[in-house]
Amino acid sequence: MSAVARTKRLSTPQIRDRKGQQPLVCLTAYTTQMARWLDPHVDLLLVGDSLGMVVYGFDSTLPVTLEMMIAHGAAVMRGAERACVIVDLPFGSYQESPEHAFRSAARVMAETGCSGVKLEGGAEMAETVRFLVQRGIPVCGHVGLMPQSVNVAGGFKAAGRSESEAQKVAQDADAVAKAGAFAVVLEGTLEPVAAAITASLPVPTIGIGASPACDGQILVSEDVFGLFSDFTPRFVKRYANLGAEISAAAEAYARDVRARTFPTLEHCFVPKTAK
Ligand code: KIV
């Protein structure tokens, strides 16, 4: 990558410096083409492990591997020029120890060229966040509803509904921010909880189902554009219905093929005019 291309891309310190400024616009991307479409409009692209459900049809993010994240991370990097691209560390690739997390994160950084990684966890992951940041790996935290802990939580449940739960989310956010995270994703929590955390944290909060009180929002692109029909969270505003359009287009295509009414190669030739 040239020095010019490097300076054009938003860096993780620039994302951190947006605390309290213009809201951060963030979306997920898993492919080169999606990254190309979104890049001019967003500050940050997340190669989320949600790809396990959205792309691979798993019913949770747990089966996602490091190899999948690296392949999709590299694909997104080929399509994004100016957005800050970060890649999720998948389940099982970082929880065991800071050293294990470093080996996984270093592979992600080296093999994709992305700007940082995201990992789920609060106070219990603070030591790991610090270990990575001190060794040159920018980390985005992720607290509140943590999809990789779905089995412990007993489902995809909102976090922070009781006073003690709200305190736990706040303590988790504080712990990862103090450990050096450049931003913290707050998932599935109520507006007053998100507002209080956003007011107290020195780094941006990026909400998903956590209200406009955060310093920015991230959503799964397929939810936003109507490309994923299994389940759409209630807080998602849908800006397009591309899945329905694809289905209608496929139906029209099938009609053309069955009726033999699609263009032939001859349609592509411009007839030569006689001299
Ligand atoms: O995996 C994911 O897509 C996420 C969300 C924050 C969108 O972690």
Structure description:
Helices cover 40% and strands 13% of the residues. The chain contains twelve helices and eight strands. It has helices at 3-8, 12-16, 32-38, 51-54, 66-79, 98-112, 126-134, 150-153, 163-178, 191-200, 221-224, 242-258; strands spanning 24-28, 44-47, 84-88, 116-118, 139-144, 183-187, 205-208, 216-219. Strand 3, helix 6 and strand 4 (116-118) form a beta-alpha-beta unit. The site of 3-methyl-2-oxobutanoic acid has 11 residues, from strand 6.
What brief labels describe this structure?
single chain, 275 residues, alpha/beta, TIM Barrel, 8-stranded parallel barrel, globular, binds 3-methyl-2-oxobutanoic acid
| Helix/strand/pairing category | alpha/beta
- Give me the count of strands: 8
Largest sheet: 8 strands, parallel, barrel
Shape: globular
Write down the CATH class. Answer: Alpha Beta
State the strand order across the main sheet. 1-2-3-4-5-6-7-8
Distance between the termini: 52 Å
Q: Provide the β-strand percentage band.
A: 5-15%
Number of helices: 12
Helix content class: 40-55%
